[in-house]
Amino acid sequence: MSLVMVVDDMAVVREPIAASLRASGYQTVSAGGGLEALTALQIAIPDLILLDLSMPGMDGMTVLRALRKSSTTAHTPVILLTASADKGDVVQASRLGVRDYVLKSRFSLPEMLARVGKYLCPPNGATALSTPVVASVPKIAKTSDIPRLLDRKQCIERAKQALQARTLSGVVAQVISLAASPRGDLSQLAGLIARDPLLSARVLQAANSANYTSTRGVISTIPEAVRNIGCSAVRGIAAAMGVFDAMPPSDGDGFNPIRCWEHSLAVATLCERLAPEAERGSAYLIGLCHDLGEILFHTHFSAEYQQVLEIEQTTGKARAELERTMLGITHGELVQTILECLGLPDVIRAPIVEYHADGFLGRGGGTLSRLLRVADLYANGMSMGTSQYSAIAPIARVDTRAATGRDHPPRPDAITLRGEILALTALLARFPAHTGAQFMAVPPRRPGRLWLARDSYLSSFDPVLAALESLAEVTVRDGLPTAREAAEHSALVVVARSTSAKGFTETDLKNASTLANASPLPLLWLTGRADPGAIAIPPILWPVSLPKLAEFVAAIE
Q: Distance (Å, rounded) from C-alpha 453 to C-alpha 151?
């Protein structure tokens, strides 16, 4: 029986592949990183390796070079898993004897099994893998066939058990209550934190980090920290450390919650910057705690959650629907239990519950839940989502106005914000900042120049623009280019509320894409709704993912 090694730092990718291979008759060994893979090779030599290219610590190309230097793996077939078709990587990999690669943006388990079948003998004498059994889950023909793994009560009890004895410290709870209260006296902050020696030490460490360095020299007391970096920064540091320490550690499926924490800190920072001054303390804490359910599901429901993800892959059903059917509760609903266990006040808890109840593209709830929705989407656009496949979508002006009071809130500098978040996450997780840099890795920037035509119905506080700016130079306008402008750009990206939006119909797009005298401009048409009628140019309904945008930008070269 052939042995296949699956190497990927993301359990959500690695485990469904391994389960599908086992269900199809292969033996598997999994590794959550490069060093782990090389260690596993000391025990068993696989017949084929599926290798993720982008991993923290030791990346896939480094692993590949190590494989080729060893006589035992010099000729082992390798299939690369990659988020973008980078020509340089493809050339390097081919020189190292890579047989094949799979773009994660086009990933499907049946295709993966077919690729493996090209290089290995079909297991158990089978003739092909044309009708593979995916994962260790029964074939799902209808909703009633979806297995019930746990009920709501069992999930809540397990969550409470995981959170036992992991409540917020008394000082942190008081800091959070002070921040959440509109009558809170921030002058009390220094005195509160100074009562907890361990918290004081960590806050001072953060205050003296690169994020907050000052010409005034070393900050040695909490009052100095409050004066030098501000009450808001000190309060945020203390609250983040308290919540981070209160969450239970991973139960061991290889999931690393660091990226989730980075996302939560990014959303918290955006919420604070976008909120009215009187609500900034509450807004920060709402952003910080909004994804705790996701972390707990991955860390303490790993076996059950893996089956949810496998069935999501095979059926295409919404994850929230599957969570409710298979576990009796969604990760969003589980947040309420976590927030109650941590003792967070209603002013923090209620907007998060509203956000999860209405969905990330919804429009319901109060101002703070709407603010959370806007910040969450924008963090994804800035490559600070919980995964590289986090949803990216534009935001309507009516939504930014409802959340912030402005149609076009100021956009943050992505590079600066990412640096701030990475440094703070490194302090929370107690690892060197350079070790965690890979968690926020974005695809390489391309030389192409994009024309982004954006419907004026949409806000300039635009996650799609943030994502595209990380990939290439972007000219953004509220209309399509002229002939001269088209000739100066490599591709056209159109973002409009629907396929019949005025000035952005299929006819308009055809005319604009052929304005350049040479070949037609490559076109990416993103829309929120496809209206009835025949359309020759296929639009893409948002949300999209960063790899999908990166794939388009890479292709225009």
A: 47
